[in-house]
């Protein structure tokens, strides 16, 4: 009972934290740290929510959550007889856990298939440019720039975007896309996108997904700033925004149309970064959430 109560409390804390987190603006000053914290909140929330139901469900075994699940799987007889509340909690917990796993796997498979199909299309219609090694060019009049993540990642840009941007702006956009590839932002987005499709009615989940999408764009902007002027990247974003840039295909990561003005303001008038002490405190909080959720699954209470 203690484990179930502790996990329920942790799940409630994660839900409240996610709700408050969606409106936070300090995240713009440290997008990478905020992304890590979002991931920790999401994982801890899922473990705590399903774990609370399962911990109550296996309580008759008196062995804790994980050992109780093993005992249930092995068909052992519980120390106390089953009753309806414990049986219902077990069924609900297993259903929720299975749903989360299935939704995540299904989303991953769907994205992998979309990327495979898109790579096949690019092999037929895209061309290489000797002045931009490693970049595939689409002969399309619309403005588009995106990357195809994965083991064989590719950066793609349209002829329309090349005409729209100056040389410095083009360098900035390509650096932004290379940042998405290098930091594997597709893996960051995958669980949030899967959860959004599983719970489309949840405002908190929708806002969390939008927040993470914006944060990875800001993180890519920060990495791109190492190789180009922030103002050039800002003007490139504005050009894409006013030209009606084409959205990235499903499963890909584009230059991003999310909150263009917020990103431009951040590039042109950067706010002071969070102090190292604050970042370490936030990372410690993220680690604490994960350790707490995992420990409550393992340690019998």
TrEMBL record:
Cofactor stoichiometry and binding remark: Binds 1 zinc ion per subunit.
InterPro entries reported for this sequence: Beta-lactam_resp_regulator, Peptidase_M48
Keywords: Hydrolase, Membrane, Metal-binding, Metalloprotease, Protease, Transmembrane, Transmembrane helix, Zinc
RNA-binding is among the record's keywords: no
Superkingdom per UniProt: Bacteria
Gene3D superfamilies for this protein: Metalloproteases ('zincins'), catalytic domain
Keyword presence, Membrane: yes
Domain Peptidase M48: 114-190
Protein name per Swiss-Prot or TrEMBL: M56 family metallopeptidase
Organism this protein belongs to: Nonomuraea longicatena
């Amino acid at each position: 009972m203690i484990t179930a109560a502790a996990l329920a409390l942790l799940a409630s804390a994660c839900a409240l934290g996610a709700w408050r987190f969606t409106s936070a603006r300090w995240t713009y000053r440290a997008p990478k740290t905020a992304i890590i914290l979002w991931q920790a909140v999401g994982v801890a929330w899922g473990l705590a929510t399903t774990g609370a139901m399962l911990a109550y469900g296996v309580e008759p075994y008196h062995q804790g959550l994980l050992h109780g699940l093993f005992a249930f799987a092995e068909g052992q007889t519980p120390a106390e007889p089953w009753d309806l509340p414990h049986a219902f909690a077990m069924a609900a917990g297993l259903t929720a856990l299975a749903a989360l796993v299935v939704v995540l796997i299904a989303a991953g498979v769907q994205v992998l298939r979309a990327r495979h199909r898109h790579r096949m299309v690019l092999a037929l219609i895209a061309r290489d440019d000797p002045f931009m090694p490693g970049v595939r060019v689409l002969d399309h009049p619309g403005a588009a720039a995106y990357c195809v993540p994965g083991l064989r990642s590719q950066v793609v840009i349209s002829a329309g975007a090349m005409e729209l941007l100056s040389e410095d702006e083009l360098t900035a956009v390509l650096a932004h896309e290379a940042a998405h590839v290098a930091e594997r932002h597709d893996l960051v987005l995958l669980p949030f996108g899967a959860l959004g499709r599983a719970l489309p009615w949840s405002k908190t989940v929708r806002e969390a997904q939008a927040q993470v999408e914006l944060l990875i764009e800001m993180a890519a902007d920060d990495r791109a700033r190492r190789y180009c002027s922030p103002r050039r990247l800002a003007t490139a974003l504005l050009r894409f925004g006013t030209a009606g840039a084409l959205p990235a295909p499903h499963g890909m990561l584009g230059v991003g149309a999310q909150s263009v003005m917020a990103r431009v303001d951040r590039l042109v008038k950067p706010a002071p970064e969070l102090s190292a002490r604050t970042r370490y405190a936030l990372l410690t909080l993220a680690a604490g959430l994960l350790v707490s959720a995992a420990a409550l699954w393992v340690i019998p209470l």
